[in-house]
Amino acid sequence: MPTRTVHLRATPAEVGEALADHLLGLVRAKPDAVIGLATGATPEPLYDALAERAGTAFRHARFVALDEYVGLPEGSPLSFAATLWRQVLGPVGADPGRVFLPDGRSPDRAAAAAAYEAQLERLGGVDLWLLGLGRNGHVAFNEPGSAERGRTRDVVLTASTREANAAAFGSAGAVPDAAITVGLGTLREHARELALMVTGGAKAEILARAWKGPETRDVPASLLRGVRVTGWFDEAAASLL
After folding, report:
1. Is 224 exposed, middle or buried (CB count within 10 Å of its CB: 0-12, 13-18, 19+)?
2. If you average pLDDT over residues 35-45, what whole number do you get?
3. Is residue 13 within 8 Å of residue 237, measured between CB atoms?
4. Region 21-39+48-190: CATH code
5. How far apart, in whole angstroms, are the C-alpha atoms of residue 26 and residue 57?
6. Is 235 a catalytic residue?
7. pLDDT tens, 131-187?
8. Is 117 a catalytic residue?
9. Annotated catalytic residue: which of 138, 148, 154, 190?
10. Per annotation, catalytic residue among 143, 148, 154, 234
């Protein structure tokens, strides 16, 4: 039966440590586990904890990602691939041959999206997929209005999402206007566990809507029910639950 459980900690750092414990337990039990990664500020405490504690625990693990910008130049440090290698894949000693990321540089976006969906199928599913929560309720780049059965696809980014990601680029106008993202249906069907990490009081209202509000396309994260979801929240984010 699908379950939803909450792991509540006082601070973002404590949330990161707790989720690191959970991931290390996963790879101890299944060394070649498939782990889905997320980018953004929220998972940084988790990645810091893993960098300190991983040792060789992840040497056989396989990794996938939620999304990638479209159209960045080759080798751009602002790509999600570069960010993940810098923040977590490199520090935990991931095997490059076991890392599978969306191709944001392909001239055929639809083909790149279909190829990534097929790659997830070949991997046999994702044991744990880490998720963040956008201030408008988006998960990956599934913006409000996204279909609950949507698959990996290319999308146009909303102004609010580009604004949220502006710091790394210097301005919202410099943020790419398109990306490849896994779909809500992809997450629901491929992930054996969705680990939703949310911290900070600024996310309290949208977390309450996503976690206990009605299921609605207006809040994409609310559609991730009927599957196993674990919530990893600090007290500020969970203050309205």
Report:
1. buried
2. 97
3. no
4. 3.40.50.1360
5. 10
6. no
7. 999 999 999 999 999 999 999 999 999 898 899 889 999 999 999 999 999 999 999
8. no
9. 138
10. 143
